[in-house]
Specification:
Elements lengths: L3 H16 L7 E4 L1 H5 L3 E5 L8 H6 L1 H17 L4 E5 L2 H13 L5 E5 L11 H8 L2 E4 L2 H8 L5 E3 L3 H5 L6 H7 L8 E5 L4 H21 L4 E6 L2 H11 L4 H4 L2 E5 L7 H8 L2 E5 L3 H8 L3 E5 L3 H10 L7 H6 L5 E4 L5 H11 L2 H20 L5 H6 L4
Parallel strand pairs: 1-2, 3-4, 4-5, 5-6, 7-8, 7-10, 8-9, 10-11, 11-12
Helix pairs in contact: 4-5, 5-6, 9-13, 10-11, 10-17, 13-14
Amino acid sequence: MGEVSGDTLGAKLIRSFREQGIEVEFEGIGGPQMIAEGFASYYSMDILSVMGIVEVLKDIKKLFAVRDGLVEKWTKNPVDIFIGIDAPDFNLRLAKSIKQNNLPIKTVQYVSPSVWAWRQGRVHGIKASIDLVLCLFPFEKAFYQRFAVPAAFVGHPLASQLPLKNPIHDAKLELGLDVNQKHIALLPGSRRGEVERLGPLVLDAAAIIHKKYPEYEFLIPAINDARKLQIEALLKQRPASLVAKIRLMENSDQESKIGRQVMNAANIVALASGTATLEAMLLHRPMVTFYQLNWLTYIIAKLLVKIQYYSLPNIIAGKKVIQELIQSDATPENLAAEIEKLMGVETSQIQVMQLITMHKKLLANNSEDPVQAILGLIQ
C-alpha cells in the first residue's frame, strides 16, 4: 500500500471490523490514516510509492529487504491473514513468499491489479499465491471467474460515500474559497517521481491558460510536507504573476483528503491518470487526464497493454468520456487546449452527465461486505 487512496481504504477496513464488533490487531505497512486507527506500521508507506518498470528497479533492493523483513517477522509470529492493499507488484511478491515458506497465513489482495488490462499472464501467479481477490469493480470479478480465481466484488467505497448531488458552492466554502471565483485544479500526482515529471507540465499549461484567461485561479493540493516543498520549489521558477494565481492547498487533518477537496471545489480538473480519476468521476467534475512515464517503461508497457483506454472513467464506460493525454501527447499546449474546451458550458455539461450515469451504474451493482468476505477465509 503506497498511495493515499490505499491508506484511506485500509483505514475504512479497520473501522469496518471494529464497527462489526470484531476484535482484530493490524500490523504491517500503513499510512497515517491507518496508524490513527491503531495500525502498527513497521515501515513507512512511502517505501512502496514507486511506479513504472524502470523506476522500480532503482529501489528493488530496498523493496526486497522490506518483503524479507515481513516474512521473517511473520515466520516467528504468524498473523492469520495477510491483506495486500493495492501496490500489487510488492504485495503479490510478498504473498508468493508467504506461500513458498509454507506460512499458515491466508492471503488477500484488496484492489485487483490491472491484470485485465496488461500482463494478463499474471493471473496464474495470482491464482497460486492469493486466496481471495477483493474487486472494486464488477468487470474485475468476471475476469477472475474465467480463470477460477476466488474473487469477491466488494464495490468501491467512494461510490456510496460520495453523493449523487454535489453542489460546487458548498465545496468551495469548505476550503474557504470565493464561491464566485472559477478554479482549475491541477493534480500532478501524489508520488515524488510523478510531481518531478508532471509538475512542470501542469505549470506550463497553467501559464498558457493564465495569459488567455487571467480571471481563473489554480488549485494544487499537497498531500504532505514533502510534496509541498517539492511543489514550492517548482513555483519559485515561475513568474510572480502566475504564482499569484496559484493556491497551494495543504491537508488540514490526518485523512489526507485535500486532493478530493480540491477537485470538488474546482470548475475544471486536470489530473494525472490513476486512482484519482475515479474520485473526480464520482465528484462529477469536468476533467482531463494525462501521464508520462520513463520512455523505456512506456515502450515496454505499450507492448503489454491489452485495453484501449488508460483512465478508469473511460474503462468503466467502455468508451472515451474524458480526454487522455499520454506520453508524447502530454504537452503543455495540448493540456491547456483540453482545459479550454471544458470551459465551454455544453462540453462540460455533457461530460458531467456521463460521469453521473457511471456513478449510478457503480451503485446499482450488488456488492459483498469486504469484512465478511475476508472472515470467510478463516471461518
